[in-house]
Automatic annotation (TrEMBL):
UniProt cross-references to Pfam families, sorted A to Z: SBP_bac_5 (PF00496)
Subcellular location: Periplasm
The protein's name: ABC transporter substrate-binding protein
UniProt keyword annotations, A-Z: Signal
Signal peptide span: 1-23
Primary subcellular site in the record, as a coarse category: periplasm
Amino acid sequence: MKLMTTLLAASAMLALAAGAAQAKQLVFCSEASPAHFDPGPTTGGNDFDASSRTIYNRLVEFEKGGTAIEPGLAESWSTSEDGKEITFKLRPGVKFHTTSYFTPTRDLNADDVIFSFERQWKEDNAWFAYLDGLTWDYFQGMDMPRYIKEIVKVDDLTVKFVLNEPNAPMIANLAMDFASIVSKEYADQLAASGDLAAFSTQPVGTGPFVFADYQLDTVIRYQAFPDYWAGKQPIDDLIFAITTDPSVRAQRLLAGECDIMAYPAPADIAQLQGNENLVVQEQEGLNIGYMSYNTTEPPFDNVNVRKALSMAVDKAAIIEAVYQGAGQDAKNLIPPTMWSYNNNIPADTYDPEAAKKLLEEAGVTGLTTDLWAMPVSRPYNPNAQRVAELIQADWAAIGVTANIVSYEWTEYRERGKQPDRKGPFQIGWTGDNGDPDNFFATLFSCSAIGVSNYSSWCNQEFEDLIQKAKTTADQAERTALYEKAQEVFKAEEPALTLAHSKVFMPMNKRVINYKMDPLGIHRFDGVDVTE
C-alpha cells in the first residue's frame, strides 16, 4: 500500500510537471525534504542539493567531480605574504534571479558578499536570528568567527577578507555551501516589508536554476536561469521528486518516472546495474558513518564505558548485513582516501567478554539507554534502523538495554545536538572540501558543541592539535598533527566509527554529463538529457 500510494502521488506530480511540453526536463528522485532554501544555516546534503547547488553560487567553487578550487563569483583572488589577507576580484555583470516575488535592480557587488557572511557572524545583524531557533552551524562550528577579523569592501567588485591568523583551509571553506552568496537587495526588500522568513522559502540567488515552486514533501521545481553568468543550462526544467523510501526510488527509476535517484539501498544495486536502460556510477565515498556518545551524560562520560560499548558491537556483521559489500570498517574518523589518514591506528576489536568486564570495573550494571537511528538513508549509512537493531542485540548480550528512537530528519538532527540528549546517536558525514579539518574541527572541535559535535566532547589535547594544523600551509606538518589527533580520538572514544561506504548513483541512459561528486552533493549544472 505504501508503494502504491507513493507511486500515485508521483504520477500526479509528474502530470503537473508535464505542462512544459517541449522543454527539456530532468527528474531527480531525492531522498528527503529540505529544511528550507537558505543554505547558510542548514547542514544536510539534501538541503544543499535543493538550495546551494541549484539556486546559489560561491566566491570560489569546487571543480565538477573533484575538490580542486576554481573561480566562481570571484574571477580571481590573491593572498598576502603573511597569509592574513585574501582579496577577491568579483566577476562583473553577474545577475540575480528575477522571480514573481523579486526583481533585482543591480548586479552582484561587494555588498552582497559582506552581507552573506555578516548575517552569520554578527549577533547585532538583523538577520542573525531571522528564523526561530536559527543556528549558523557551519559558520560557528568551523570557528569562522575566530579566524575572520573583518571583511572589507575595497570597491564594488573587490572584497578583502582580513584574518586574525593564517588559515590553510580558508579558501576551500569559502567554496562550501554555507558560504553561498545571497542578495542584500532582496534581504533589504523583505526587511522593509517585515517578512524576513520569506528569505528561506522564496530564495533568490545567482545560480544555474531559478526556484519555481515547492509542494511540501512532494516536489520542488526549478527553471534554467536564462541570464546565468556561466551560460544557460541545457536542462530547461529541473524537478526534485521527494521520495524517502530507497526501494520506492528504485521502482520509480526503473519505471522511468525519474531520471536519477539518490542513495539506492544496497539490496537494489544489482538489479539496477543489470537493467539495460540504466547506468550506475560508483565511487569510494569521502565519508564516515559513526555513533556519537554524549560524553557529558553519565555513564557515557566515562571513557571505559564508551570503550566497552564500542567493543561489544560486531562491526563486521553490520557492514555485511547493511552495507552488503559497499562499505569498509572505519577505524578512523577520516576515510583512508584522505591525506593524513593514520593507518597505524589499530582496528576496533569485537570482544563482548572484555566489554562486560570493563562495564563491571566501571560499576555499571543494568544500563538502559536510548539508541538513536536516522529516519533516512544516507551515503554513509544506508539503513540506520537496521544498524540500531544489530547494535541493540549486541548490547543485550552484555546486559545493556537499548531503546531505539527516531524522528523526522530535520527534527532528528536538532534534537541530537541538544546538550541533554539521552543515549548514543547515529549520524555521519560526507566531506565538504577535501580537507581533514572539515572532519576533525567541524565534527569534534570544542566550538562545534551544540552545532555539529553530537558527542559534546571537548578535549584540549585534540583541540590544540587541530587548531595548530590550520595555521600552516605545510601539508607534511599538518599531516603529523592530524595523525596525532587521530590517536587522541581513538584513545578517548567520543564516538564509535562504524563504516566508510562506497556511493552509487543510478540514472537513466538518456542522462548526459552527470558527474558524481566526492563531496556528496548532487549537481545538475552542465547536465543534459537526450530526447
